[in-house]
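Narrative of accomplishments. A recurring question from our advisory board has been how the design workflow behaves on a single, concrete structure rather than in aggregate. To address it, we present the structure tokens for one chain from the evaluation set, followed by the sequence designed for it. No filtering or post-editing was applied between the two.
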């Protein structure tokens, strides 16, 4: 039995790598041969860890002739990119959780793997423990998916939920999230939307069967969201969420972006709170499907990694062409839609002087820029200033930006506090 075991190499023994190691211990047909770490001397709270498996040279993993599957769990583009290519060159299949690498270099890696008749699986790279890629490639394969709305980052969702529940500022909640370990010391990758943008790039590529270029994904973070916006959104029947969105128009062009949105409370995503992730897929004939669950963490992410490993293990020795349905078989690049050419509804919070005719001047600026108003409310007048909340009908992004320029140059307007798109 020992000689029939599938040999596994792991690169990275952080949170996810630890979960993968612990989970694989219960499978008799798998043997972990080598584990690469950054610091061999670091104390690890892992029972039954054979220190002889540990190396601080990841190339010992990808060059080991006995290893059949490499799990790359270190993140980033380098050295992960070179390690994966080296492993494939050496005849190994790949399982990865690396969303940045796939978003930036997925096309090259998938083509290289195909040329070498190897498989790259990456379920954990999109939404942690939520099964997405396998269902899209198999159960939902008969559908034409044309729209994705998703919450793909637990850190930002936690921060926005706490801001909503506690009526607290972004800065205060971020500090709390960092203390609890939900946010990194440098939270830029999460709060500025990079993490979600990496994920939606790959998810849209798979769902639409067209390659999405990361450089074409519009990205905006949550750092400008205020408690006042949360309160106003609630009063109007919305919740504010960081939404990763992708949509194909009738011509097959792809509008892919990440930014805060006012989500109607009637929508499922409005009720996805704290570190939970969720993905809503729309298409024909299925209609609308939402998958929700833990988007990160030791064992949720390990669940996806181990699932991919077992999928490969089940095929080794049975066929010369493993998992054909899971391979990348599309090569057409999607034509991107620039954010300025999109149509959206908008929420605006405007601070103005409390003077006669201000509402009229806002209305005139809207008319001059082809914008229709769904609602406009002036409230909480304090001293010589007024807080005006506006919701627009659908209008073009470029017209909205011209409107912003117009009112920013109006002497009666102090400033535009917030501009947030509204999910339709």
């Amino acid at each position: 039995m020992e000689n029939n075991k599938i040999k596994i190499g792991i690169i990275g023994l952080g949170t996810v790598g630890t979960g993968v190691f612990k989970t694989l211990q219960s499978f008799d047909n798998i043997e972990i041969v080598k584990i690469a770490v950054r610091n061999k001397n670091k104390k690890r709270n892992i029972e039954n860890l054979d220190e002889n498996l540990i190396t601080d040279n990841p190339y010992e993993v990808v060059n080991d002739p006995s290893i059949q599957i490499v799990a790359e769990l270190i993140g980033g583009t380098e050295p992960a990119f070179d390690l994966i290519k080296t492993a494939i060159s050496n005849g190994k299949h790949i399982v990865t959780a690396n969303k940045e690498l796939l978003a930036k270099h997925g096309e090259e890696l998938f083509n290289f793997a195909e040329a070498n008749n190897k498989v790259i699986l990456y379920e954990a790279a999109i939404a942690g423990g939520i099964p997405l890629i396998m269902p899209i490639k198999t159960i939902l394969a008969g559908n034409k998916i044309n729209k994705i709305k998703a919450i793909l980052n637990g850190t930002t969702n936690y921060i926005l939920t706490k801001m909503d529940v506690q009526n607290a500022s972004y800065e205060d909640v971020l500090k709390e999230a960092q203390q609890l370990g939900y946010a990194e010391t440098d939270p830029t990758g999460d709060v500025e939307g990079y993490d979600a943008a990496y994920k939606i790039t790959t998810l849209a590529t798979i769902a639409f069967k067209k390659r999405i270029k990361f450089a074409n994904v519009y990205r905006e973070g949550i750092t400008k969201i205020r408690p006042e916006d949360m309160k106003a959104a609630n009063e109007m029947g919305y919740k504010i969420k960081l939404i990763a969105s992708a949509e194909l128009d009738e011509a097959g062009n792809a509008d892919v972006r990440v930014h805060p949105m006012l989500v109607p409370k009637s929508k499922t995503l409005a009720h996805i709170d704290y570190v939970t992730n969720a993905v809503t897929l729309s298409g024909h004939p299925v209609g609308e499907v939402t998958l929700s669950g833990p988007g990160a963490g030791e064992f949720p992410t390990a669940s996806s990694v181990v699932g991919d490993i077992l999928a490969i293990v089940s095929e080794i020795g049975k066929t010369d062409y493993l998992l054909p349905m899971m391979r990348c078989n599309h090569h057409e690049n999607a034509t991107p839609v620039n954010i300025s050419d999109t149509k959206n509804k908008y929420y605006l919070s405007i601070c103005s002087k409390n003077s006669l005719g201000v509402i009229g001047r806002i209305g005139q600026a809207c008319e001059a820029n082809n914008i229709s108003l769904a609602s406009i409310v002036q409230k909480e007048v304090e001293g010589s200033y007024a807080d005006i909340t506006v919701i627009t009908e659908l209008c073009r992004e470029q017209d909205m930006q011209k409107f912003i320029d117009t009112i920013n140059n109006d002497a009666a307007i102090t400033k535009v506090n917030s501009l947030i798109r509204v999910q339709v």
